[in-house]
Structures are given as C-alpha cells and as structure tokens.
Amino acid sequence: MNKWTKHDLLDLEDLSKDELELILETAKSFREVSSRDVKKVPALRGKTVVMLFFEPSTRTRISFELAAKRLSADTLNIASSSSSLSKGETILDTAKNIEAMNVDAIIVRHPSSGVPKVLAESLNPSIINAGDGCRAHPTQGLLDVFTIKDKKGKIEGLNVGIVGDILHSRVARCDITALKKLGANVTVCGPSTLIPIGIENLGVKVSYDVDEVIEASDCLMLLRIQKERQEDKFLPSIREYAKKFGINKERLKRAKKDMLIMHPGPTNRGVELTAEVADGDSSVILEQVTNGIAVRMAVLYLLLGTKEPEQKKKKG
Amino acid sequence: MSLLLKNALIVNADKMSKDSQDILIEKEKIAKISPVIKDFNGKTIDCKGKLVLPGFIDLHAHLREPGREDEETIETGSRAAVKGGFTTICAMPNTNPVIDNAMIVEAILKEAKRVGLANILPVGAVTKGQKGEELVDMFELKEAGCIALSDDGYSVNNAQLLRLALEYSKMTNQLIMEHCQDQHLFRKGAMNEGFVSTVLGLKGDPVISETVIVARDIEIANYLGVRIHFSHISAKRSVELIRMAKKQGIKVTAEATPHHFSLTEEEMRYFNTNAKVNPSLRSKEDVEAIREGLKDGTLDCIATDHAPHAQEEKEQDLDHAPYGIIGLETALALAVTELIGNKVLTWPQLARKMSKAPSEILNLKEKGEIKEGLDADLVIIDPQGEWEVKADNFASKSRNSPLIGRRLKGEVKNTVFGGKIVF
Fold first, then answer.
1. Which residues of B touch A113 (CB under 8 A)?
2. What is the nearest CA distance from B316 to chain A, expressed in angstroms?
3. Cα torsion B194, B198, B199, B205: sign
4. Mean pLDDT of B331-339
5. CA–CA dist A60, A138 (Å, integer)
6. Residue A309 carries which DSSP code?
7. Contacting residues for B24 by C-beta, under 8 A, at least 6 apart
8. Quick count: other Cβ atoms within 10 Å of Cβ A287?
9. A74-79 sheet: strands from edge to edge
10. Angle of helix B74-83 relative to helix B102-115, nearest 10 degrees?
C-alpha cells in the first residue's frame, strides 16, 4: 500500500487498515520537519487551505493551520455561526462561495453530525472533517493512535480504556474505530447515562468501574466532561463525577507502571484528572499536541500533494 | 354534469367486484352501478385494466396556509392531494396563525371552496395557540366546521387538560387526535435513538417518547369512556399497547404513515434531512410491527402526515432542519409497493385503510365507499403502473421527500371529486 486515492477525510470508518497505516507512516516522516530550525517544506506550495469553523476551537484550528503552513500552503480562517441561515445563507451556500474562490481543501468543523459529508458530496475541494457533532474527529483519532504507537511500538493487542462522556464524544467514536481497525482491545468507561445505546456493537467492552479499567489498561484516554452539557442533567453533579471517575494519584497505584494517560484537551483539571496526573510521568498529553501537527501534515499532504489531477471528482 | 366510468373493477373496503362494472355519476353522486350502462352521451372514461377505489381520505396533512404559503397553499396542497388520489384531507392546525378560532376556519373553508379540487376539513387546535395552556372554544370551532381537534406537533402534555378536552368532546362530538410525544423524552432528537444514532452521533428520539403518551392516553380514554385517535404511530410497543386497548374495548383508533411502514432509521446514514421526520423513522422491527398492526386492524388507517418544508430550511444541518416529509403524492404507490407487494394487505383491505376507515373515524356518511347514492369521490388506479419519484414532478410546492429517485408501483390515473375530474 503506497498509493493514496481518497479525496476527502470524513471519518476513519471510510479508511482501510492499510490507509490508516499509510497516514501514520507519513506522519512519522513529517514529525521531523517540526523539529527543524526552518520548519517548512515546499510540498503544498501554491495550494490554498481554508479552515471553515462553525464551532469555536483553538487547538485543532491552530494545529491544522501550522500543519498547512509547514507544508507551504496558503491558509485562511473563516469562523461562522452554525445558524448562518439566520443571514439567509445555507452552509452549502457558504461553502460554495469558498469553492468559487478556487481553494484546494476546506477543513470543516460543525456542531451537527454529517455536515462535512454532505459538503463533500457536492463540492470539488477536498473536505477534511475537523469534528462534526458527536460523530467523528478523524485527525484526533489518528493522532491518538499515532501517539500510542509511538510510545508502545504497536497497537495490536493493547488494552485501551476510554473514560468519560462517551455519549457526546466524537473523539471516542473515532478512537474506537481507529483502535479496533489496528487490533487493540477497547473498553469504554463512564457514568451509565453517558454511555450510548448499543456501543458494544462496535466491539468494545463497557464498564462503569474506572478502577477496574485502570488496572487492565495499557493506555487510558480521558475525555473532556463538557460542563455546558450539564444543562441536560446527565449527571447529578460534576463533583460526583470527579469523585467516581476522576483520575488521581491514588487511583493510579493500581495501574501498570508504563500506562499512558492521554487527553484530547482542553482538560478540566480537578474533574477528569488531577493536576499531578496531568503533569505526571504517565501523561503524554502534550506529545499528543505535538503529534497532531505531524498527523495533520500527513493528511493534507496525502489529500493534496500526491493526487493526479484527474482524480478530482465532479459532482453537482 | 354527468360522467360515466366504463369497465371498472370496483374495489371497496373488504370486497372487490368480480366483473367489471360501469359507474354512472350524476349531480356529484354515484347514480348507478351496473355491468353495462348504455345510451350515455356525456364524458366517459374507459377504466379497462384499472381499479376504481373510493377517493382517499387523509386524516393528517399540513397545508401551511395561512402563514407559510412559500411551502404549500390550500391550492397546491389540493393539487398534490388529488394527484395522489385523495379527495378529502384533514388540514392540521399548526398554521400561522394557529387554527384556534372560527374566523380562521372560515377563511380556510372559503379558499378551499374557491379552489374546489378536494374536500378540505380544517382540524382545530385543542389548546389556544397550541400552547397547551387553555382549551379552544370547542363548540365555536365545531360550528365553524372543525370535526376534529389536534395540537399536532405536540401532545397535550398536561394530562388534566387532555382529560377536559376529551370530556368536553362528549358534547361537541369532535374527534381528539393526539400526536403522542413526551417533550422531555423527545428532546428534539434528530432521529430514532438506537445503535444507528450512536454511530452517527445524532441526538436520539427514543420510542418511549411516543409510547408513554400512548399508554397515558389509553388510560384516560378508558377512564372517561371517550374515544381518542392516535396520529402517525411509529413504534412497535405503541402498536402492542393499542392492540391491548382495543381488545379491552377501549375506544381508540390509530393511523400509520406510508413512511413509517416503508422506511427505517437506516435512511439517516446518508444525513439526508428529507428523512428527518417527527416521529422519527424507526427500526426494522418497528416497521414490521406497523405492517402487522395494519394487517390485523390494530392500526385503522393510513394517513400521510404530508409536511411540506422550504428547500433552504431542509438544506440546513440535521440538528436545525425542520421535521417532515411530503406524502400525498407517494402514499398510494408506497402502499402498493410495500404493503400489497409484500402481501401485507389486499386491495380491498387497502381501500379500507385509505377510504372507509377514515370516513368512519370522521363519521363521513356520504364518503368512503363506491355505492349508489354516495358522493362521487373516486380514484382510478393502474395497479401495475411503475414510475420514478422525481423532485420536479411534485404538484406540491415543496419537494422534501426521501423517496426521490425511487421507483414505485401503483399509479393514480384519474381522480374524481364530487363528480368532477380533478386529476
């Protein structure tokens, strides 16, 4: 497998194991670029990459922007309200206007599931999903498996626990997809009201006992508890969550010595994990951030830099 | 004006004519049915090879006028209706303003009469402004022409208010129709809650949002001994509850929509907002239970829940796009393709579900059957006719249908309303 054929990156579900591994391999070679004195290669010179974000984001947007810039692409940021129809324009209108400016890729984040997929069906530029609703966040899934593989040397056979609000997490869904495709054993763990129906059909185990999960895991992925979701009262309180599911030093005594602590960020210190765990030896949270740039460079390069012109699709 | 339908195979509820018949229509009524009617010089339609059914009666359609004439009007809605074989349609009250006083009812009836294509029956709201706070003046609405009331779009969430409406309906003799949905459980979910919503990351509407209200309303109807009608039933468990209630002699009737007996939540995998509907498209098991309910009579009739929406609103993301599917023009073909095609119903049973049963539920004594002396509302159908659903071919002003591109069997060739060929 050395040929990349996909035009868009919408969901890891769409990728084969070989394609996942190609991205990880490519990312490995790009990681070195960011440690150079001159952090730039000309791979995407002359390409235009637009970041169209309908939802606030700092780290994902900056990570994509740096990735594009380090590949010498021109970048542009557009922040839009998710209810742009209030201005009389649909999302498709907005995106078509951007397409009309002859851009090569549109990186989309939207609070509603499916928007990048719908845009990809009717637009020519490559669409990269930077997070849609509770559905997918493929580059996060990729950077997570990249980090695990980097640290552990493999994915296959590892036990990975994903802890937190699984119901509303696009990161959880993408991590599950990537990890399962690469052969890991996945357990999701969280309050029972935040475990979505039928999740075990994705081939994961479900646990409500974080201590049991800590004990068995080679890697613990903590998800952000979104305080804004608390309006829906899925939890009695954040306080109770922190007590029952928060990771602290005491809990980690049960863990394997080399267990990794990961988090897609931004962390709620004192909720998902204590400060000493976040800053402790097991934590690879900042490495995830560094690797994120390499993975996004790989994705941009594969989508924009290796393609024959006739591979461009044309749809209405 | 008179009209002769020749060589018609007549399909009535539960019976089909063995040999072809001629149907003579005079002065808006069916004047004579006989194997051969000779010496007629007026307009004649040869129905050889076709089936003739009583005009369909839709208990549930949204015509959007007044308020959203960009989506549908009484005129375009009537055209869509007769193109689909419907000659009587109940127009739901969630217009703007809401149908909650006599003046609006009169305005709708006046426009319906001007259009003159079909029999439009405005359904009044149960509560003023459909706000769920105080009852409408039910007698006033009855006298203006509302034989049924519904807060469609919502349940009457306050059980005491529903109790009062049902009790009061003993005097006014109006049918109370419930859109069964607990608002707290519903949470404005974008699709059925289940494994598919988990994978797609969409907010789920659980079946219990419907079933808890079905159960509650059965209890209230039983306690009062008053009839109630359930709109657009979608869940297997609802069918079971209704079946049990009917066995116990509780006066409930219920309808199912063509999309709920044909389509599943799998449609949502394409993030097609045209498949976003309230209640949601459910699982395969639910669809099978709806079919079973239609077959064994638990579900009395088929109603479209025709819900036109502007294209720009449906082009929003799935969380913001409005709920609804247009159904008037595809109902018959879906019934033929999915129900008759899969041997769920026979033609006479379909005539019951689409004409006779709704006429009985509304107590329309002159309609629902092809019989001498009754209203000449008829639909001529080519049972073998195949066609493709195309966005540009809708008579409706809107085109929000998840069926676009699908080939269906069963084609309406002509519709006769009050003796007039209206399609």
1. 200-202, 271, 318-319
2. 6
3. positive
4. 98
5. 11
6. G
7. B2, B3, B4, B30, B31, B32, B33, B34, B37, B40
8. 16
9. A74-79, A48-53, A105-110, A126-132
10. 50
**Predicted local distance difference test score (pLDDT) of residue A81:** 72
Task: Provide DSSP, B242-311.
Answer: HHHHHHTT--EEEEE-HHHHH--GGGGGGT-GGG--SSPP--HHHHHHHHHHHHHTSS-EE---B----H
Quick check: B317 and A85 CB within 8 A?
A: no
Q: How far is A112 from chain B (nearest CA, A)?
A: 6
Interhelix angle A91-99/A115-122, rounded to 10 degrees, is 50
Residue B418's alpha-carbon distances to B5, B92, B314, in angstroms, are 14, 23, 36
Superfamily of domain B55-362: Metal-dependent hydrolases (3.20.20.140)
- State the average pLDDT for chain B: 97
> Architecture of domain A12-136+291-304 in CATH?
3-Layer(aba) Sandwich (3.40)
Look at the pTM and tell me if it is higher than 0.90: yes
Average pLDDT over residues B335-361: 98
Residue A280 in contact with partner chain B when CB distance is under 8 A: no
Chain A residues whose CB is inside 8 A of the B189 CB are none
Among B151, B217, B305, B375, the active-site one is B305
- pLDDT reading at B394 higher than 70: yes
Could you tell me the two tokens for B19? 């040999």
Residue B34 bridge partners (DSSP): B22
> What's the pLDDT score for residue A232?
76
Residues 6+ apart with CB under 8 A from B33: B10, B21, B22, B23, B24, B370, B371, B372
B232 confidence band (pLDDT: 50, 70, 90): very high
The residue-averaged pLDDT of B194-222 equals: 97
**Can you tell me the distance from the alpha carbon of B44 to that of B327, in angstroms, rounded to the nearest whole number?**
30
Q: What is the ipTM of this complex?
A: 0.91
CB contact under 8 A, B193 and A199: no
Q: Between chains, do B201 and A198 touch, taking CB under 8 Å as contact?
A: no
Q: Where are the domains of chain B?
A: 2-51+376-421, 55-362
Residues B261, B236 contacting (CB under 8 angstroms): no
Confidence of residue B1 (pLDDT cuts 50, 70, 90): confident
A202 touches chain B (CB under 8 A): yes
CATH topology of domain B2-51+376-421: Urease, subunit C; domain 1 (2.30.40)
Q: Inform me whether the pLDDT recorded for B44 exceeds 70.
A: yes
Cβ of B202 within 8 Å of Cβ of A114? The answer is yes
Q: Pick from A87, A92, A112 the residue to mutate for testing the B interface (most B CBs within 10 Å).
A: A112
Give the closest-approach CA distance of A91 to chain B in angstroms.
7
Judging contacts by C-beta atoms under 8 Å, the chain A residues touching residue B194 are 197-198
pLDDT over 90 percentage in chain B: 99
Determine, for residues A134 and B319 on separate chains, whether the beta-carbon distance falls below 8 Å: no
Low-confidence ranges of chain A (pLDDT < 50): 309-311, 314-316
The answer to whether domain B2-51+376-421 and domain B55-362 are alike in fold is no
Least confident of A149-153, B156-160, B275-279, B311-315: B311-315
- Distance (Å) from the alpha carbon of B269 to chain A's nearest alpha carbon: 9
pLDDT in tens, B127-173: 999 999 999 999 999 999 999 999 999 999 999 999 999 999 999 99
Homologous superfamily of the A138-289 domain (CATH)? Aspartate/ornithine carbamoyltransferase (3.40.50.1370)
* Annotated domain spans of chain A: 12-136+291-304, 138-289
For B360-389, write each residue's pLDDT tens digit. 999 999 999 999 999 999 999 999 999 999
The reply to whether B305 belongs to the active site is yes
How far apart are the two ends of chain B, measured CA to CA in Å? 17
Q: Hey, what amino acid is at A182?
A: L
pLDDT of residue A272: 96
Nearest to B346 by CA among B355, B354, B336: B336
Does the fold of domain A138-289 match that of domain A12-136+291-304? Answer: yes
